[in-house]
Design brief:
The protein has a five-stranded antiparallel β-sheet. Strands 9-8-7-10 form a four-stranded mixed β-sheet, with helices on one face. The protein has about 325 residues and is α+β, with helices and mostly antiparallel strands. It contains seven helices and eleven strands.
Length: about 325
């Protein structure tokens, strides 16, 4: 009888303790959601007026959109994720010509794509940011926290995003191929390398990397204030790869979902020649493949309410 009473007390204690742990976890999640929402609202309010000035009608040529200066983009169009400290740049919506007539066959045909505005990582995801979420570091080049995380598969990237979303209550994902190229070209129709014609100014590649990755943000940014879109590490995209995907692409917010199984990566890396660092160059790996030249950059979804505000512009 005495043993049963002690057992009952023990079970009651465990039940109360577990309930408290659950309540604490819920409180942490609610607090993170409030912080995320507040930070997003503040950043969005600063950029809403600027974003509203950019309509697709005005962007029959994307040069019109360049009336928003680089300085404005750097000072007003930045959002910082409060849990990891990752910085994001707002890419205004617009239309551009995706692909290249002078590139490989899978870069054709050149076709018009129109995108809603979106937030994209100012830098490639670093080893420090990866470790905050995953508690491990898969990278081959472990020379510092500010180096890009690499040696990750597409599946690894998706798991990281799943855990990050749960921890922050925000909506992060990989960029679509069309979003990646649009940001790399800084919304222009013709751009050889992400940033400009001088590859050494903007990218770590075979000709200057000394056979290794480098700290993010040590080369010049493009006109949107985004670093390392070319070189350092290839960046996983959301899309399934197909050599003829562009023939089947829809005009607005396209993402290729199949058939196929390999996933697209973009941007070239520390080990690649200049041709692979071009804005339009497409590459692919199996979703489970890993390499010391494969990393990622994130996109943050706009909330449905904010997205609806600009739907009439596309």
């Amino acid at each position: 009888m005495k043993k049963n009473k002690l057992l009952l007390i023990l079970l009651l204690f465990i039940w109360v303790f577990a309930g408290q742990l659950f309540a604490d976890e819920q409180e942490r999640e609610n607090r993170a959601a409030k912080i995320c929402a507040k930070a997003e609202k503040t950043a969005y309010e600063k950029t809403e007026n600027a974003a509203d000035q950019i309509s697709i009608k005005e962007q029959k040529t994307v040069d019109t959109a360049d009336k928003i200066s680089t300085e404005e983009l750097k000072t007003e169009n930045t959002w910082v994720e409060p849990v990891t400290g990752m910085e994001f740049m707002l890419v205004p919506g617009g239309c551009y010509m995706m692909g290249s007539n002078s590139g490989k066959s899978d870069e054709k045909p050149v076709h018009e794509v129109c995108l809603y505005e979106f937030w994209i990582g100012k830098y490639e995801v670093t080893q420090a940011e990866w470790k905050k979420i995953m508690k491990t570091n898969p990278s081959v080049f472990t020379k510092g926290d500010n180096y890009p995380v690499e040696n990750i598969s597409w599946n690894d990237a998706k798991l990281f995003i799943e855990k990050l979303n749960k921890k922050t209550n925000c909506m992060f994902r990989l960029p679509t191929e069309s979003e990646w190229e649009y940001a790399a070209k800084k919304r222009k129709n013709s751009q050889t390398y992400p940033g400009g014609k001088d590859i050494d100014q903007y990218a770590w590649y075979d000709g200057n990397s000394d056979g290794t990755t480098h700290e993010v943000g040590t080369k010049a940014p493009n006109a949107l204030g985004i670093y390392d879109m070319g070189g350092n590490v290839w960046e996983w995209c959301e899309d399934i790869y197909a050599w003829d995907a562009f023939k089947h692409a829809r005009r607005t917010d396209p993402v290729f979902t199949g058939p196929g199984f390999r996933r697209v990566d973009r941007g070239g890396s520390w080990i690649n020649f200049p041709g692979d660092v071009c804005c339009t160059r497409r590459d692919r790996y199996n979703p489970e493949d890993k390499s010391s030249n494969l990393g990622l950059r994130l996109v943050k979804e706009k909330s449905k309410k904010q997205k609806n505000k600009i739907e009439d512009k596309i």
